[in-house]
Amino acid sequence: xxxxxxxxxxxxxxxxxxxxxxxxxxxxxxxxxxxxxxxxxxxxxxxxxxxxxxxxxxxxxxxxxxxxxxxxxxxxxxxxxxxxxxxxxxxxxxxxxxxxxxxxxxxxxxxxxxxxxxxxxxxxxxxxxxxxxxxxxxxxxxxxxxxxxxxxxxxxxxxxxxxxxxxxxxxxxxxxxxxxxxxxxxxxxxxxxxxxxxxxxxxxxxxxxxxxxxxxxxxxxxxxxxxxxxxxxxxxxxxxxxxxxxxxxxxxxxxxxxxxxxxxxxxxxxxxxxxxxxxxxxxxxxxxxxxxxxxxxxxxxxxxxxxxxxxxxxxxxxxxxxxxxxxxxxxxxxxxxxxxxxxxxxxxxxxxxxxxxxxxxxxxxxxxxxxxxxxxxxxxxxxxxxxxxxxxxxxxxxxxxxxxxxxxxxxxxxxxxxxxxxxxxxxxxxxxxxxxxxxxxxxxxxxxxxxxxxxxxxxxxxxxxxxxxxxxxxxxxxxxxxxxxxxxxxxxxxxxxxxxxxxxxxxxxxxxxxxxxxxxxxxxxxxxxxxxxxxxxxxxxxxxxxxxxxxxxxxxxxxxxxxxxxxxxxxxxxxxxxxxxxxxxxxxxxxxxxxxxxxxxxxxxxxxxxxxxxxxxxxxxxxxxxxxxxxxxxxxxxxxxxxxxxxxxxxxxxxxxxxxxxxxxxxxxxxxxxxxxxxxxxxxxxxxxxxxxxxxxxxxxxxxxxxxxxxxxxxxxxxxxxxxxxxxxxxxxxxxxxxxxxxxxxxxxxxxxxxxxxxxxxxxxxxxxxxxxxxxxxxxxxxxxxxxxxxxxxxxxxxxxxxxxxxxxxxxxxxxxxxxxxxxxxxxxxxxxxxxxxxxxxxxxxxxxxxxxxxxxxxxxxxxxxxxxxxxxxxxxxxxxxxxxxxxxxxxxxxxxxxxxxxxxxxxxxxxxxxxxxxxxxxxxxxx
Length: 928
Prior knowledge:
This protein has about 950 residues and is mainly α. It is built from 37 helices and 14 strands. About 55% of the residues lie in helices and about 5% in strands. The termini are far apart.
């Protein structure tokens, strides 16, 4: 028993199956007319060399250029129909072959047209006598290499330089380059687009050129750039997304056509998140749907259009292109032309669930294969399912279905899924406002805010009333004022929720609304932020919750407003920072920038900063929502800092002049909060730079490297900065070298020689750790890490005079306390007696005095864990270590919340009594 092929499978049809391609009326005509020429194409998939071979044979027997190109086209179509319908060829085989046919035909036509004109007028010349070049730009499916079998080709003709032709041998007949290339375009159209006895090669459409059908047929690159800057419309950004120079082959081979990317990329992809394009795409989609409805009016059979109807191919393309245009400025890895490739990139960038991307890809392939079969029937540029039962049954059978019913059921399922995803992205149909009438209706249409004031709480109403009279608001475009009104209405609705003090509740909704107003007001002229909130209601709600929970997030968002888009994903709050994923995404963006020649230093600095602040904001949102603990916040921020240091160092090394090795033998030692993995928001980084390199140039090269690295980490760009860097803990402090060899660092720390570390530096060493500079450590990195760990352990376990050490640490504690005076009736959770600093000094003393006898104190596992280990080792009375550890945790939590809300970390003496007493008991147990 032979198994029947699965629906849409790529397996071969059973040998007993009839030749399905023969049902196509187009195939029947081709086999009658070109029976003698069909063998000119070698067996198998038609590829460009095969097309050139067939073309050469036709020219050799006397066919003209135009006829030979058309006959080649007919041979390719006959072959593709047979491969697709009878052998279930993959979609890519068909689209690639048709695209290569277009490229071959346009290249041939370009060469012929320009050769004819050059014989009469000489070659077109640019500045300094350089040849000027014609570029044929393929748009849409041609640009994306996904042409269908009866596609027209959307072209734009450009040339690189103005000037004039050289003239004939006598210097006569000169033409301006514009005129020369205009004539070439006419000749190319005649060779490719005219209909003759052999049909056409491709239908040609120039409507996408600058100024559309009223514009010149060919424009210079400079004119195109000016058009983009002055007149370019939003919908044209979607059109140019897939643009690609497709002919002549010579300008592709010598890479001169790459100059086009420098003009197109800034137009298509903005450097900020660009939600203003949503309305543009809605308008374009509505026009397409209305046009399709007009075509099908009175002709119900035309309503079943697999491309333009609801859930059709165009809606998949719009979903993909919208996300690319909105995000592609900041996420260069999304810049790809083919739809199927773009879907997977969107999923990898977490802009779409993987299962959604896979389902849309399956729908796209299915609909494209159906579209091809519709066109195979009669070689007509149509996307409408046939009404004849025999034709519909044939389409089903060529896709592997036994009959029409299962095929139509699968078609409906795909289209319904696509339509739902499209409506989800663009918000579906806008519901009419049933409340608005009379004055309110007029206010909604004009964006007037005054009628909303009476519904608002007094403090927020006062702020919105001020907006009503604000020149800044009055200067906004009408469309933007309408959007602003929508946001105020939503905020008013959010304000109706009750205040609450429980976890996850907002204690003061009005304060959140006022902070939102403070945040949005200076951003009003940057309309994309207003558009983002309008398009993403969930983002506005999460933003209001975040601002209502604490003050510091509002200040942070004033400095980095673009990060609010991170709130678009509801899954974000449930996650945690992943160093591997963060690094992978950064490297993917770096690679994309390098491939397009955009990886200059400024762009890389901004790329690092945007990624860092987006990730920090994710952690902040989880923190404020109570999804992660203070310890988890510190762990994630510390791991984020490690990763940023690693990536920045890797990207910075090639920027150093005359590096003497491919990868540096270099390490960063983290101290303080970075070393102890206790980083908070805005913490500076205490770090020391060391190298292990015997090359005679090492000192100079690594000093230069570290200076550049510090600059990359601290310089402010339009995306802000990364960290404040403190290198005072390096050997000899601020008077010492910025970077030092590992040998010198070891001698300094271990007291070999006259230049040795102080006790306070050994205290700092208890919290020091090696910051790994390799994502996947190789032998060299491991050896550096192991060497540092040996040095640290030797320092910590060195024999010491216990009483002298105790006296020094107590004296240091008093010095720190004196520098941070606190009023007698207040308790500072960090600096007062019984505060966190007491625990930190106690732990440092226990480690430095007892680690030799108790090696479990050597690992840098944090103060809380070390206090518990010290008690378990008998170094602290029972309960003292655990109580102090719990108190330390609570004091950190109180400090963290106070800083988030920009409140003092000093509380009344009546607060936190148990925690203070636990800390004082620890101090007494350790220092007596």
